[in-house]
Design goal:
This protein is α/β, with parallel strands linked by helices. It is built from seven helices and five strands; from the N terminus they run βαβααβαβααβα. Strands 2-3-1-4-5 form a five-stranded parallel sheet, sandwiched between helices. α3 packs parallel to α4. The longest helix has 20 residues.
Length: 175
């Protein structure tokens, strides 16, 4: 059986996870790979509807994403997960179940993600108007030893993509 990779992008909202996942997807598709994106927001809306934002509910959501990612990877699909997945222990538990995986920490400081936030959610959370907001009133536990650490406040999308392709041992493809 040919297992696919699970590439798990974690980081605060607004750090650049989705931007990088979409850029990487284009490269992998151009290289002829089977690819599926699992976006945390879409999974929460469709597979985890009704879950709240308690630690237990967030962990359940991450485990559900992880289960689907594992099924796809078993069939040779490269799965690109874009999910805040704020708790280190749950992320580690899920990642440990895969044969081929990369944990990617998409990192940008709170000041930067607040500036990038076009909806103003961080400012509302900082003002106490939104409870249980990851990185403000709820914790985000950064990976201690991610396979790839991308500081999106210091690196361009292209530079991040180069590092991701190197970690996957792939060369860029013209798209």
């Amino acid at each position: 059986m040919s297992y696919g990779n699970v590439v798990w992008f974690t980081g605060l909202s607004g750090a650049g996870k989705t931007t990088l996942v979409v850029a990487l997807e284009k490269q992998l598709l151009a290289a002829g790979q089977k690819v599926q994106i699992l976006d945390g927001d879409l999974v929460r809306e469709n597979l985890s509807k009704g879950l709240g934002f308690s630690k237990e509910d967030r962990d359940t959501n991450v485990r559900r994403i992880g289960f689907v990612a594992g099924l796809l990877a078993q069939h040779g699909v490269t799965v690109l997960v874009s999910a805040i997945s704020p708790y280190r222990d749950t992320r580690s538990e899920v990642l440990a179940s895969y044969h081929r995986k990369l944990e990617v920490f998409v990192d940008a400081p709170l000041t930067v993600v607040t500036e990038r936030d076009v909806k103003g959610l961080y400012l509302k959370a900082i003002a106490g108007e939104i409870p249980h907001f990851t990185g403000v009133s709820d914790p985000y536990e950064a990976p201690e030893n991610p396979d790839v650490h991308l500081r999106t406040d210091q690196l361009s999308v292209d530079e991040c993509l180069e590092r991701l392709l190197a970690a996957l041992q792939l060369s860029p493809v013209a798209v």
